[in-house]
Design goal:
- It is a single chain.
- The longest helix is centred in the C-terminal third of the chain and has 42 residues.
- The chain has two domains: 177 residues, no CATH class; 200 residues, no CATH class.
- It has 399 residues and is α+β, with helices and mostly antiparallel strands.
- It is built from 13 helices and 15 strands.
- Helices cover 53% and strands 17% of the residues.
């Protein structure tokens, strides 16, 4: 009965209640959406690379080196000579290296030049290796291995031929059409930038730029390279050796440490977004309280009728609080429904634009705590109209 009375009361003011619920739903959508994207972005960045001890590149900012070498964001300020790469790879403490050469693209997707070490040693998530959904790794110069998302979105299959373009823009007028590449492998999905990458050999990358033969081509330079050590105890020793390397100015970064620095640098922005979204929510909650207060004059007859049939002032006050909780619940359901639809429909765009896989599932502890805060705030602001209803039910002549 209690819920039925509250629902009937709200249904008598459909327009104002609908607008209040819409405003509250929008504020919850912003609050929960920001936190959801933040948590998923952190998780996606953290699982992109694992098992790599150092990333080596030309001297630039630590974060910049991490972003362009691992996440394919931005561009290198300079390259690393092949000679320098070979000398550092030959250090006694180095177990393996993965050369990375970027700069070309195919229909907006980045092309990565590398070698067989990439498939043997690259790890993501909880030290998971790259595996093939179909085919194999490249052996010849003009063979290409596609990331899962590239193959899915462009509809490629084994044996298809494609042409690479110079530069990383979505549209390029400089095509390497004299050397088409044959698809020989398609990787399984990883939820990392690997899915949006085309992988070719360093020899193939050199061949299309030098216009020469495809065999015995040694690159002049690469963008960066990943390093795995025989013992992690030696990580700072090797890092120091790279920074003191005399052949050219290089730097070596620890990916985990730099990723932590990256999120720390975004701390102020994250805090600002949370603060603004919290203010939006508070404004919506006070708007709901104001709407209920404004409706008190219209509800005098309803309250008097309830008193006549034996309802106590406390019953009427609790009825107002129940209305607040009902509107909050409807707004929450609406916010979650809209968020799920937007994330489901926009997932491909987010993956293509930012390389991030954002889950459409909004139900996890962080958002649960936020919803608890939303309901707590709703109960607090609901005390004002509830108290007004309580006073009126006790002393109708005073209003």
């Amino acid at each position: 009965m209690f819920w039925r009375v509250a629902w009937r009361s709200l249904s008598q003011r459909k327009s104002s209640v609908a607008l209040t619920i819409a405003a509250l739903a929008l504020s919850i959508l912003v609050l929960v959406g920001i936190e959801h994207v933040r948590q998923n972005a952190k998780s996606a960045f953290a699982r992109t690379i694992s098992g790599t001890d150092l990333i080596v590149g030309a001297r630039t900012g630590d974060i910049n080196l991490l972003l362009y070498s691992v996440f394919r964001l931005g561009n290198a300020s300079n390259n690393v000579s092949w000679r320098s790469y070979q000398e550092i790879a030959a250090l006694p403490d180095v177990a393996w290296t993965i050369p990375l050469s970027l700069g070309d693209s195919h229909k907006g997707y980045k092309v990565l030049g590398t070698n067989e070490s990439y498939f043997n040693h690259y790890r993501y998530g909880q030290s998971l290796p790259l595996t093939f959904a179909a085919g194999r790794e490249f052996h010849a110069a003009f063979e290409v291995v596609l990331g899962a998302e590239v193959a899915r979105r462009l509809g490629y299959k084994l044996g298809d031929e494609l042409v690479l373009a110079h530069g990383t823009a979505a549209t390029s007028f400089t095509l390497h059409d004299e050397h088409p590449f044959t698809v020989v492998g398609i990787l399984k999905p990883t939820g990392t930038p690997v899915d949006q990458t085309l992988h070719i050999s360093l020899a193939g990358l050199e061949a299309i730029h030098r216009k020469g033969a495809a065999h015995d081509l040694e690159p002049e330079s690469i963008t960066a390279f990943l390093v795995g050590l025989k013992s992690r105890v030696k990580v700072f020793q090797v890092q120091r050796a790279v920074s003191q390397y005399r052949g050219e100015p290089l730097q070596a970064i620890l990916p985990g440490v730099v990723l932590t620095q990256f999120w720390s640098s975004l701390g102020v922005m994250e805090g600002t977004l949370r603060f603004v979204s919290a203010l939006v929510l508070v404004a919506a909650l006070f708007g709901m309280s104001a709407m209920l207060l404004a409706s008190m004059r219209e509800r005098k007859r309803e309250i008097l009728l309830l008193r006549t049939v034996g309802a106590s002032p406390w019953f009427i006050a609790l009825l107002l609080q129940l209305e607040v909780l009902l509107m909050t619940t409807l707004a929450t359901v609406a916010a979650y429904a809209v968020s799920t639809v937007l994330l489901t429909l926009g997932r491909s765009y987010i993956v293509d634009s930012f390389g991030l896989h954002i889950s459409a599932n909004l139900f996890y502890p962080a958002t649960g705590y936020m919803l608890g805060a939303v309901y707590t705030g709703a109960v607090i602001v609901g005390f004002v109209p509830a108290f007004a209803a309580y006073r009126f039910s006790r002393h109708p002549s005073h209003f």
